[in-house]
Write a structure and sequence with these properties.
Number of helices: 11
Distance between the termini: 19 Å
Number of strands: 21
Strand content: 25-35%
Structural class: alpha+beta
Oligomer: single chain
């Protein structure tokens, strides 16, 4: 295992968990790849309330970063009026959490996008004076107009693209559906922005479309969540900004090299959330492809790699895949750096116990991926009036959540179904479900718990 280390940059490590043994004729190889970065400082050097400053960076130091905050200012933000006020207060709290020296801008989003601070297509440099000016500009925001989120993202991309920084990040808040542009316009904007900056997306209230908000976060490798009560926005925005300030390495890719004859079935992130990366592969040389992972601070994530190897005889062994963490050269001129590496193996055996044993990590995350899938299927069935199908899928979800110890998801499910027997997945659909509870379950359905290794 190789590690990458540099001053003020996390060290990366790769660990592979798998059962390498296959029976005669066996072809499918599964592995959980745990990627961990340590030593960078989880807050990027900014002191949190009640804490002492991180030893990693001195005051005002840290990786160069730029952040654009996109605030929904459409007419619906005035219903109730407290929603717009809470959005202004939340954005102000996020601005307070900016590390000094960070470039930033505030965009007001309606059916058009306007950079309200500092304006004129520029980014401000965070210090006490610019933060105060930005908060003054926020106080002047009012609600009115439609919603065209693609225009907000394109403006954020132009602002962030002009900055020579290591980390580019967006925070997007919306309370409504993207009604003033075609779905293909939003998709084109996401395709244009993908790989250029990461973005966390939040839906406030219950009048927005879950699949739009989660789709934005998935495309831009960020997080998505619901803030059903606008009063909770400030705390959520502060956490988001602190997390963004903790990112120290951008554009890390998971590179998968496979020998001749090996087919890739899928590559998925499985913790802390489920995200299918299979279709996001970019070719990286003979039999190698890169899968984007976004920006990293002090954190650990798990990935599920599944490949099909050629059949082989008992006693034979082969390298099924080599997994590397790759950091591109910022200039684009030099060779990328390999941060760490792990190997996935295949060994054919006639030992039935060895070849039929399922690795605990693989089993756990296969269940977590199914959990996310059946929740979505169950909620979709419920919305379409297929109550028998919804009961079956959500019952299976309760069973999986209980078996894996995913208590957070189990609690969310209990607000949508009455659980008769969690172990068997016997449930009844609740006659009345609060819209916020259903949307919270849908938005957070991809969040997983880690297996105890």
């Amino acid at each position: 295992m190789a590690n990458f280390s540099k001053s003020n940059v996390p060290q990366f490590s790769v660990e592979v968990y798998q059962n390498a043994f296959l029976p005669e004729g066996g072809r499918e190889v599964n592995a959980i790849v745990t990627v961990t970065s340590t030593g960078g400082g989880t807050t990027g050097g900014i002191p949190l309330a009640g804490s002492t400053p991180s030893p990693t960076y001195g005051p005002g130091q840290g990786p160069d970063a730029a952040v654009v905050l996109m605030v929904d200012c459409s007419g619906s933000m005035d219903y109730p009026p407290t929603k717009m006020r809470n959005a202004r207060d939340a954005t102000a709290a996020a601005i307070d959490a900016l590390r000094e020296g960070t470039r930033f801008a505030v965009v007001a989003g309606t059916h058009v996008a306007k950079d309200v601070y500092p304006g004129n297509g520029r980014l401000a440099v965070a210090d006490q004076q610019t933060k105060d000016r930005a908060k003054e500009a926020l106080r002047k925001l009012s609600a009115g107009g439609g919603t065209a989120i693609g225009t907000w993202l394109r403006l954020a991309d132009r602002l962030l693209g002009a900055a020579e920084v290591d980390i580019r990040h967006g925070i997007l808040l919306t309370d409504g559906r993207n009604e003033h542009e075609a779905p293909e316009d939003l998709r084109a904007a996401l395709d244009s922005c993908a790989g250029r900056f990461t973005c966390d997306a939040r839906g406030v209230g219950t009048d927005w479309e879950v699949k739009e908000v989660t789709g934005i976060a998935a495309a831009l490798l960020g997080t998505a969540d619901i803030v059903a009560d606008p009063a909770g926005l400030a705390a959520d925005f502060t956490r988001m900004m602190e997390n963004a300030m903790g990112k120290e390495v951008a554009d890390v890719a998971l590179r998968l090299w496979t020998p001749v004859g090996v087919e890739i079935r899928f590559v998925k992130q499985v913790a802390p959330t489920v995200a299918d990366l299979t279709g996001r592969r970019t070719e990286a040389g003979p039999r190698a492809g890169d899968y984007p992972t976004g920006s990293w601070g002090d954190e650990s994530r798990d990935y599920h790699v599944c490949v099909l190897v050629p059949e082989a005889g008992i006693g034979q062994e082969m390298l099924a895949a080599r997994v590397s963490l790759i950091l591109p050269d910022p200039s684009g001129a030099g060779a990328p750096q390999t941060l760490s590496q792990g190997l996935v193996r295949a060994v054919w055996t006639d030992d039935m116990v060895a070849s039929t044993s399922i690795n605990p990590q693989v089993a756990h995350y296969t269940g977590q991926a199914e959990l996310a899938q059946v929740i979505q299927q169950g909620l979709d069935a419920r919305k379409s009036g297929d109550f028998d199908g919804a009961t079956a899928k959500l019952g299976r979800a309760v069973q999986l959540a209980s078996a894996s110890g995913n208590q957070d998801t189990a609690k969310l499910l209990s607000k949508v179904v009455d659980v008769v027997d969690a172990a068997t997945g016997t449930v009844r659909l609740k006659a009345k479900v609060a819209e916020a509870d259903e949307m919270t379950l849908e938005t957070r359905s991809t969040k997983t718990v880690r297996v105890k290794k």
